[in-house]
């Protein structure tokens, strides 16, 4: 009878050890999957922040380039009175930003307002689909009350990033 009792105790201990090892293994696997999931989300957040910053910088670079060509080079058409007779609304010479030549065509919406919208105005050096690009909108209006030209430059930088989400940031500058 004592032999039978000892066999039952050994079987019970062997079953408990197996159950305990399966529970520990499943707990460790669950913990590993949880840590991996948290790490993946953190990488996505960090990538999104980086792409947002890149989009902002590309928009700022496009705005600076357009402002330079407007203020220093006088490349954009402007009317200084209500009887504006400017017929050519293209920029005087191609604008060069980041070694890319860009021609802008301004639409004359009324005698003293010129508007242009340009996609892919400023592009980083690479030409891949995830390359940050800036779109720009320039509005030049002559204000008769102040006898000044008001220029509004809106630049939008966008970047698709490595996770496939488009990130876009915009900057607007108004010069009187």
Describe the overall structure.
The protein is an alpha+beta fold and about 180 residues long. It has one domain (about 50-175). It contains one helix and seven strands. The strands form two sheets. The chain has a five-stranded antiparallel sheet. It has a two-stranded antiparallel sheet with strand order 1-2. A hairpin with a 2-residue loop joins strand 3 (about 105-110) and strand 4. The protein is rod-shaped and about 120 Å long.
SSE arrangement:
Blueprint: H1 2-71, E1 95-97, E2 100-102, E3 107-110, E4 113-123, E5 133-143, E6 148-159, E7 167-175
Antiparallel strand pairs: 1-2, 3-4, 4-5, 5-6, 6-7
What's the helix count?
1
Strands side by side in the biggest sheet: 3-4-5-6-7
Q: What's the number of domains?
A: 1
Strand content: 25-35%
Largest sheet, if any? 5 strands, antiparallel
Work out the radius of gyration: 32 Å
Order of SSEs, N→C? Answer: HEEEEEEE
Approximate helicity band: 25-40%
Shape: rod-shaped
Specify the structural class: alpha+beta
Please provide the count of β strands. 7
Distance between the termini: 105 Å
Question: Which regions have little confidence, pLDDT < 50, spanning 5+ residues?
Answer: none
